[in-house]
Amino acid sequence: MNKSFLGSSIVNQFVCKLLFVCFILSNFHCYSQNNPTKLSISFSESKLKSALDSIESKTNFRFYYLENWFGDKTITKDFNNESIEEILKELCKNTQVNFYFFDDKKIIFTQNGIIYNELPTGFFIEVDNKDTISITSTKRISPPVFYAENKIQNKTILETVRIGKSDTNTAAQFFVLQGQVRIKKTGEPIPDLSIVSKDRGIGTVTNVEGNYSIRLPVGQNILKTSSMGIKGTERQVLIFNNGTLDFELEESLEMLEEVVVEADAAKNVEEAITGTTQIVSEESKNIPLVLGERDILQVAKALPGISSAGEGATGFNVRGGKTDQNLILLDDAVIYNPSHFFGIFQALNPFTTKGVEIFKGNIPAEYGGRLSSVFDIETKDGNLEKFSGEASVGPVTANLALEIPLTKEKSSLVFGARGAYSDWILKSLDEESLNNSTASFYDGIIKYNNKVNESNDVRATGYFSRDAFSITSDSIYNYSNRGFSVRWDHKFNDKNTGSLILANSQYKFNIDYDGESNNDFRLGYSIDETEIKLKFNYFLNNKHTLSYGIASKLYGVNPGFIYPEGNESAIQSLSIAKEKALESALFVSDEFKITDKLMFDVGLRYSFFAALGKSEQRIYEDGVPRNEGSIIDTVQYGNNEIIKTYGGPELRASARYFLKPDLSLKASFNNGYQFIHTLSNNTTVSPIDTWKLSDTNIKPQRGNQYSLGLYQNLKDNVYELSLEGYYKTSKDVLDFKTGAQILLNETIETEVLQGEGKSYGVELLLRKNKGRLNGWLAYTYSRSLIKFNSEFSEERINNGEFFPSNYDKPHDISLITNYKFTRRYSISANFVYQTGRPITYPIGTYQFNNAEYVYYSDRNEFRIPDYYRLDLGVNIEGNHKIKKFAHSFWTISVYNVLGRNNPYSVFFVTEDGGVKALQSSIFSIPIPSITYNFKF
């Protein structure tokens, strides 16, 4: 019969301590030394309590324990002539229970801890440093754990959690606690949550998936959690060994009370990786943008080092890089054109978007294929408890997002849709030729998430967007994005997790021309890719966290086609041969601490690219300019035959050193390959730009980046200050000969120039995260230069010297502020200043065959006027009553308050025998808007 006399944690401690003293005084010997009794016994799906009862019935032993220590654990195993000690070890193997032989007939079980029969040497020596447990002994023995019940200020007893169980084979004084933090109501992970051991002065923060890891001393720790919008908690945690502790926390009303632009300051200082930024979708709520639309990608342009070629231009130029050098992911699927309406709106529903993490310095090893940056955009997980949603109505668009629980606390669905009624905006632009134009767009997203069990999560996302516009009365342009991804996250054990990801993406555009002449046509282009990725995270120990995996993607490109429309069309059909390629990679990285001050994050990625047939590759004569006349041979490749391979190692290394607890110095280096390029001879990104795969005649781009920065928090994280410098070099960047034909060109390599690039700059960010007045000031000084040199004059630009790229803007200033008068009323302002981008001007004329021609300067020798803009907004929250159907939010804003006629481009025409300069603008007058949002 069981004699469960340890009735509570206090009794447990008292008995253990009393027995401990008795053992020292009486010098008892354990059973394993004196009693060699063997036992044969079998168990089949037996609960551990039943197994212990069976052993008691077959022996003279009596066991002392609490039944709830073993829970519902079972055992199935046969023991043949095994000692009692070995049998009990197997029963306790996957529990937090230890045992001790009191004498020849009594065995005492303990939860987590162990019973000692000797004191370590120096046990009674007083230690001043509470963070160091100084117990030494000639015998390896785990130090004992003593604790007292703790109370917080309101006299409530803290919840006590025991982690791991003591092991006589280790004398470790620190162990690793890890786990995941989620919102209790919805099951969503909580990123950037601070977890601090109050009595030890040790802390950490959760990552974007809510995971954390902290190294704690053995024994008692009081853990405190805190984050904006999350109720803080305190727990007493007793550390006996490595283990896992998950938190489910409740949201607080601070999400409605505080509207701040905040990134986690501690993470900014503590992490090793340089040049990272996180933007939460909610941050764009109070930033006045054009036509009242929330747009996290426009907010990104207000951060240091990120810009675009001009107002309304699609794409990003990150640290002097081209727009095609950015990898934009939506739930692991690539988005090739994340914008609507010529870059004025983002192609992502702001109500379904959780946030974006931007890597513009040291890019983690798991990402590849782009040289400048990664925009990792994450969609919200659906509410697991109740049906909810959010919607808005503005002057141009209407948005809707719904969160639908499917199985309570287990699975849900997120659905988002947007549509535009934007034809009127084209009529208001300062361009007479656009008055009869039309434009519309829509996008939709659906996401399914299912928490299968404690070890498995499944997420699936489907996305589609489409734009259609007619700038002239005879042509209709349309382009679309499609993305789909499935992700399975699996937890193998406390140290190992893994993810399997399958994603597919497509981008395509079409032009339908229906004119008065007989040359009607339909023109199109598409690119498709499918990727599979397998990645793992392994917590090796408290100094090393490993990430490794493999990824592979298959590209399919239709470079273009044109077909006649109608029986009378004179257009000849043409279809450029399709392209195919396989891009694969192996990657591994290690985040490891050398000391408490010095930490490294080192990764290695090996990329491999193979251009595949079916294809026809042209061979050009050496020593002469590349053109159709210098083709000496044509090589045919069969389906899936390897045409050309490229690849090599990519190093990703960064380091962080604490100069002070709130001040860190970081440095990094990374290099990479990019095997895909955009083909465009426009100054800014166009929806009809095409993508080209590397082959025998077009090499992949290669790049290196070095960065160094200082990061500091001031006044208890109220202020965040960072200063970072960078230097980048690149090889085989693409440009085109003057007047190059890009679309439907079978010998596109004859129009391509590949050269060198370099960029450098300094980025300053001052951010105020708390208080009635919050926001940030960002300043960037940067230069972006390119060089195209050749022994042939027709393949040389600006005499083969470095010259400014189209997006070179030395000075860039952004100021974003929000002032909160009350919980319901606030005002916002957004000011932007940028140096005018480079342009090529005519500097003279000359006569030839009785005709006058314009003579142009060196490429990008001059600049258009500087750009500046001020936007203002008023934000009105609805009342904060708890019991109401929906919470409302009004945004009244004016874009370009000063009415600045910022030039989008400057171009030149010959008229009446002379050359005239003309300037075009996107928004040359103030644009007011009012948007109504409500959440239910």
TrEMBL record:
TonB-dependent receptor plug domain residues: 292-370
Predominantly, its location class is membrane
Q: So which domain of life are we looking at?
A: Bacteria
Keyword annotations for this protein, in alphabetical order, are: Cell outer membrane, Membrane, Receptor, Signal, TonB box, Transmembrane, Transmembrane beta strand, Transport
Gene3D superfamilies, per the entry:
3.55.50.30, Carboxypeptidase-like, regulatory domain, TonB-dependent receptor, beta-barrel domain, TonB-dependent receptor, plug domain
Q: Which is a GO BP term held by this UniProt record?
A: siderophore transmembrane transport
**Alphabetized PANTHER family for the sequence:** HEMOGLOBIN AND HEMOGLOBIN-HAPTOGLOBIN-BINDING PROTEIN 1-RELATED, TONB-DEPENDENT OUTER MEMBRANE RECEPTOR
UniProt similarity note: Belongs to the TonB-dependent receptor family.
From the Swiss-Prot or TrEMBL record, give the protein name: Outer membrane receptor proteins, mostly Fe transport
